[in-house]
Give the backbone structure.
Amino acid sequence: MKKIFYLLMIISLISCCKDSIKDGEGGKKDSIIVDRNNINVSILIDLSDRIDPKTNPNPTMEYFQRDTEYIKAIEKGFLNHIKSKKIITYDDQMQVFFNPEPLDPKMNQFTKDLKVAFDKNTSKDYFASVEKKYSELPLNIYQSAIHDGNYVGSDIWEFFKNKVNDYCIKNDKRNILFILTDGYMYHENTKFAEENKTSYLTTKLIKSNNLTTSDFKNTIEKNKFGFVKANDNLSNLEVIVLGINPEKGNPFEEAVIKEYWENWFKEMKIKNYQIKSADLPSNLEPIILKAITGK
C-alpha cells in the first residue's frame, strides 16, 4: 500500500511540474491576474473644427471649455480613486492622446506632462502636481489648436485600428478610455467604404443614407450601414464618449450618431460603454466620476 501511495505522490508531483512549466514564463500559456482596483485611464481628444468658437459657437459655454471641464472631472475621479486605496496598492496611470498629432511641437511636451503614474513610492506632493497639470495644460492644448486653425479632422477610426491596443490597454489593469468628440468621424487619410459600411460619419453621409426619419434603425439594419470594424476584440476596454453634438436640421441626427457608435462598439466586443451628449460639465461630472469608480 505504501508503494502505491508513494507512486501516486510522484505522479501528482510530475503533473504539477508540467502544469507549472506550461503556465510559466517560457510556456505556451501565461495566466495574467487583473486587479480591477488598478486603473489605466486614457483620454482621446478630437481637435477638429468642432472646438472652433467661430465655426461652432455656443453662447452658454464654448465646446472647448466644456472639454477642459470634462478633463478636470476625469482627473478628479482618477485622483479620488487613488486616494481611496492604500499606498502600497498604488499602480494606476492616466494619459492624453490626439490622432493625428497637431502641428504645434509643444503638444508633444504637453502629452508627456499629462502622462501620470502612481505607485507605492509616489509622494503626497505628486497629487498637487497632477491637479496643477490637469487644470492648466488641457486649456493650453485647445488654445494652441484654435490659434493654429488647421483643423484636419480626428482620425478616431485609425486610432482604434492601430493604436488603442498599445496605447490604452494594460492586461493587468482595468482600462478606461474617454473620447471627447462631437460624434462625427472623418479624416482625409482614412476615408474608405466596405460595401455600405464606412470609416467615417458626416452629416452629408447621414442624409445620403436617408437616415432622417423615425425609421432610421430599420434603414440601418436593412442596408447594413455603420462603421467598418476597426478591431476584433476590445472586451478588456471600457469606453465613455463625451460631447455628441449633432448638426441642426435633422431631429434624428443625434440618435443616428449614437446608433453608429453603439453598433461599432458591440462589433468590437466592447461590453461596457456610454455615449453622452455635449451637456454642461456640471451635469456630466457625476456620470464621469461614476464611470471611473465602476459602481
In short: The chain has a mean pLDDT of 89. The radius of gyration is 23 Å.
